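Bug: token stream looks shifted between consecutive jobs. Job 1:
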Amino acid sequence: MSRVVGGDILRGVIFTAVVDANVRHLRPSDVVSQAYSEASDQVPDELRKPISVHALALELDIPYETTRRHINALITDGLCVRAETGIIVPATVIGRDQMVTALRRNYENLRRLMTDLREGGVEFAA
């Protein structure tokens, strides 16, 4: 992900949070969600739920201005677009080979981190 967002960790976190916010309303049991369950299947932009910069800042517990600045940079870089009610990461961005590779790598790193934390005795609330 660092190559995608220019090596800025916070920008990567914000980008990932936008991706998550755009599709989290789709539950695994939904018929619509099942239609896009494979890694190669992209949720169309019209099904993505935009998130406002303000909601994103609150969700991540970081200052609004910091969030706004990073979102503007992501928009300038062509990684996000401003929709009528917030920000989305378009399916065309998610589908880029570089992005798919980065997202898979991040997912694997997160899985390793969670495993290490559990093995270290950290308990997670459900």
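Job 2, same session, no restart:
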Amino acid sequence: MILTITTYGDPILKKRGADIDKDYPQLQELIENMYQTMYRASGIGLAAPQVSLSIRMFVVDTTQLEDEKKRKGFKGIKKVFINPQIIEESGDEWKYEEGCLSIPGVREDVERKPVIKIVYLDEHFTEHQETYDDINARVIQHEYDHIEGILFTDHLKPLKKKLIQKKLENITKGKVDVDYKVKFYKK
């Protein structure tokens, strides 16, 4: 089932998500629905707060980038991250243009560390500790920010934020063209 994506302005996107346990209601169905929603919106990651659930879970599928990026040795990942904790970020920050399904029509360069170490539970509640780099690390950091109540626009310098302010205001007013199911926040 395709879920509705929550857009910029909704307070749930600025709230830290809660941990869940293996008894979370209909978890496997939620995971499948999140993947379907992400694919329908042409995304490579989707966090639970983006579908109005304030929990610490996100899905990522960067395998879609393997052909497009043609990076030597680049191998994408398709994973579910439950109750994750980034325990280390390393390397020199690098800029890369990011966008977000919850902030349609806005893309900006964001600086992030290139390597992360993360502890998380998979969909079977098996714990993993893994290290990621490159685009995989960036997508995980972006989605992880969502469950921390942080948006990619929060990483922008004040001048950049000022330059996109009108676009952000338009999103809160529903004045944006999207080809996927969204919910605009009404105060």
